[in-house]
Amino acid sequence: MTVKVNRFVKFLNSLSQTGRYANKQISQMERACGNPVYQNRYFGNSLALLQKNLDKDCFCYVQKDGSKIVRETENKHLYGFKLFSSKKVYSDYGGMQIKLTQKQAVYNMHASKIEEEAKKSYSFDGPSILIVRSAAERQSQFPSTELGGSIHPAVAAKQIMSNGDTVYIERYPGV
User: Fold this and answer.
1) Exposure winner among 13, 43, 101, 156, fewest CB in 10 A?
2) Domain that holds residue 133
3) Is 151 a member of any domain?
4) Residue 148 domain-assigned?
5) Angle at Cα 49 formed by Cα 118 and Cα 7, nearest 5°?
6) Per-position DSSP letters for 58-96, written without gaps between them
7) Separation CA 134–CA 146 (nearest Å)
8) Cα–Cα distance between 164 and 136 in angstroms, integer?
9) pLDDT recorded at residue 74
10) How far apart are CA 115 and CA 4, in angstroms?
């Protein structure tokens, strides 16, 4: 059952370890933006938190062992293009970051199609992978996303798919 977070819900959260950790996340979310936070409690004492805004949505999933997954989505409107940006952080109970995944997409509102997608994922001690997919016959030939602009042409492998899309894959081995 999804409920709006208020003092009573925060008090009930303070009775469990997962809830106390969720209260920290709730106060961070409320400080960032004044919009209300909604909470859903799942079987196994895990919690999901959601805060919606016109420009930015924030979703946090707190598992029963204290680890969390945070996903923030930004919606920006740029000259007939829409930029979607999301960041997913996996961290353990102590707050140590285990894995980070960033995704960005540029949507052309005039042509009603996605022009570019970029996804970067890396872990603390593992490999780093950056994948940029550029749609065929797109209007702008330059990378429109921040992640797409950071690709190094000497390191990235270029593939042209059967539908004309261009895919760049850049891999770095783990430490």
Assistant:
1) 43
2) 98-175
3) yes
4) yes
5) 150
6) EEEEE-TTS-EEEEEEEEEEETTEEEEEEEEEEE-TT--
7) 13
8) 5
9) 72
10) 37
What H or E segment, with its residue span, contains residue 113? Answer: strand 113-123
Position 130 in a domain: yes
Q: pLDDT at residue 102 above 90?
A: no
Residue 7, pLDDT above cutoff 90: yes
Domain count of the fold of the chain: 1
Q: What predicted TM-score, i.e. pTM, was given to this entire model?
A: 0.64
Q: What value does the CA radius of gyration of the chain take, rounded to a whole number of Å? A: 19
CB count, 10 Å around CB of 106? 24
Q: Do residues 22 and 31 lie in contact, with contact meaning Cβ atoms separated by under 8 Å?
A: no
Please write the tens of the pLDDT for every residue from 34-93: 789 999 988 888 899 999 887 778 888 888 777 778 877 776 666 777 777 777 777 776
**In the structure, what pLDDT confidence band is assigned to residue 122 with cuts at 50, 70 and 90?**
confident
Cα separation values, 6 from 9, 20, 29, 69, Å: 5, 14, 13, 22
